[in-house]
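step 3/5: co-fold with tryptophan
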Amino acid sequence: MATKSGEGFSSSFGAIMAAAGSAVGLGNIWRFPYICGKYGGGAFLLVYICFVFFIGMILMMSEFIIGRRTGEDPMKAYPKLRPDRKGWRFVGLAGLFTCFLILAIYLVISGWTLNYFWESLSGTLASIADNDFASHFNAFASSTWRPIIFIAAFLLFTTLVIIGGVEKGIERVSKLLMPILLLLLLVLCVRSLSLHGASAGVAYLFQPDFSKLTGEGILAALGQALFSLSVGMGVMIVYGSYLPVDDNILKTSIWITVCDFAIAVLSGIAIFPAVFACGQDPTGGPGLVYQVLPMVFNSLGTVGRIFSIVFFLLLSLAALTSAISLLEALTQWLSSEKIGRTKSAIVMSLVVILFAVVASLSFGNGILSGVKFGGLQFFDLLDKLTGTVLPPVCALMTILFFGWFMKKEDIIDELSNHGTLKIGYFKAFYYFLARFVAPAALIVVLVSGLIN
Ligand code: TRP
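step 4/5: write C-alpha cells
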C-alpha cells in the first residue's frame, strides 16, 4: 500500500503490530505491575485507564496525523506544517534527543533481561538459593563486562532489524513476535492463576485502595501512560509517516492502545498471583522481576524452570520491538541527511552504545559509580530525565502544536482520509481533548512535579 514517505508498512495489520510492538515493552511487563501495586491497585488502574484513553491515545492519533500528513521525520514535519514558524523543529529535535536517552537506558535494562534469559536457559538461576537473588542481581548489574556483552548482543539484534528495512525488517519481525508474545503471556497467566493462593495476588492488583493513590501516584500514572504508549517523543510521527494512505487512524490507534493496556494488565496477572502464592514480597519495586520472580520460579520445580525461560524470553522480545522503534526514529532522522539507512543505523548504534555502557558502569557500585552529576550517578540521571522530566515536556509541546498551531482543516482531512471516513461526533470530542484537556493535564502534572 502507498505511503507518503515511500518507505512504509504494507498493511494496516502490519502497522498495528509494529506500533503495538513499540508500545508493548519493559514499561508494560516490568514497570506497570509494580507501580500499579504500589499506588493502590484498582484505584491506580482507574486513573491510568483515563490517562491512557483520553491523553495517551489522543497524542498517538495526533502524532500519526502529523507523520502521515507530512511523510517526514519529526524535525522536518513541524516546519512543513507551519513554514512560518520554523522554530517548532526544536520540538522534533527535543523528542529525538529524548528517544536517544531512553534508548540508552533501555539497552541497559534489556541487557539485564537477556542475561536472565540466558541464565534461565543455562540453569544458573535454578542453582541460586532464595536469599541470594538480590546479591546475585546487584553483583551482576554492577559488574563491568558481563552487562556490556549482553547490551551489545541485544543492540546487534535491534540494528539488524532496522537495517532490514521498515517493511521487511520492522513490520515482519513485529508481525511474528507480537502474537508469540501474547501467547507466552497467556500461558503464564493461566499457570499463575491456577496456583494455590493466587487470589490474594489478584486482589492486590485490582482491589481499589484509594488511600494509597497519592498525588505522586497520579503523576506516576500519567508518566506511565505516555511511556507505555511510546507517545510524546515523535516515534509515532515516524510510524505515522509509514502508515498506508488509506489506513483508518482512529481505528488503528484504538487497537494499539487496547493491546498495550491489555498486555500491561495481563502482565500483572502473570506476576502477582504467583508472587503471593509463593509467599514473596509484592512490593519488590524495580527489582521485582529480577530478584523476586526467580525465587517464585525456583519454588515451582522443573516447571518453574520452563516458566522462567518463557518469562525472560517474553520480556526480551517485548523489549526488542520497543528498542527497534527508538532506533528507527533516530535512524530515519539521520538517513534523511542523505547518509543512507544502513550507515545511519550503524552510526546511531555506535553512539548510543557508548551512553549505554557508561550508564551500565555507573549502576549500583560499578566502576563509574563515583562519578556524579548533580549528586546522581549517570544511570540514575538518565532514569530521572527519561522517566519524569523530558517525556511530559515533549508531549506537552507536541499537543500544543497540534491543537493550537496546526490547521484544523488539515487535521480533519487527515483523520477522515480526505472525507472518505465518517468521523462526525468524534471530531468535536477529539478536538476538545487535544486542544484543552490533554495540555491542561500535562501542565498540571509538570507544575506539580516541579514543586515537589
Ligand atoms: N513503550 C515502550 C515500553 O513500554 C518504551 C518505548 C518505546 C518508548 N519507544 C518509545 C517510550 C518512545 C517513549 C517513547 O516499554
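step 5/5: annotate
The domain at 12-451 is CATH 1.10.4160.10 (Hydantoin permease).
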